Amino acid sequence: MEKITSKSNDIIKDTKRLISSSKARAQSGAFVLEGARLCFDVLNSVYRIKTVFITEKIFEKYPLELPALFERADNSYMISEEVSKKLSDTENPQGVFAVCEMIENKSQPSSSKILALDNVQDPANVGAIIRTAEALGIEEIITYNCCDIYNPKALRASMGSVLREKIFDVSSLEECLKSLGAEHKIYSAVPAASAKNITEIDFSLPCVCIVGNEANGVEENIKAISDKLITIPMLGNAESLNASVAASIIMWEMLR
Description:
Radius of gyration: 20 Å
Largest sheet: 7 strands, parallel
Structural class: alpha/beta
Mean pLDDT: 95
Strand content: 15-25%
Strand order of the largest sheet: 8-7-6-11-9-12-10
Oligomer: single chain
Number of helices: 11
Number of strands: 12
């Protein structure tokens, strides 16, 4: 296995760009997983592994598990601790990274319970929502103008769920919802007392529930084509909930 000890190595610089830049990820069609859990999770996914980087320390810790990564990868490199720190998006790098090829989901959402994210920008929120969706059994998520799901913070917050969920990134949420509207009820979540209490909604029919931007909520054009505006009742003084918390409550109600 070739060893890389220079932080200025071109392979390392290109990989660092994938970690730090959404634009670089989009242009190359690749992203980087960091840490043992995420890197081992990818082995149970359909993602292609292009390159693996490990330190000697991590190899000593996982001598039985790492060969499976090497077998799946096109290329594998041993890197120094200094190079690992250069690549890492965390304060305490574990010393294992996997560059993977993105997957473009060209099919259409079709499940009976779908969550849609409208302009949700915080990577931690997006990752947490995807993790909760997998935990609750929501298999399909639509994203529109959201943060990059392959952002390192989103990947960590999802605890690997990004690798297993069916995620449809659409260029027009309105058109996507209109195509689903023939068979699905469309519900937009809003922090408004005039909206329908979520506990009074009949979720037995196929539906899509939309969670909006952290600051501005669901877009007006999306609310306009919704069958109902729904809200989570709150007895306290807070005006609204964190997007990931709201999405979790909505998904729980969808599946009750």
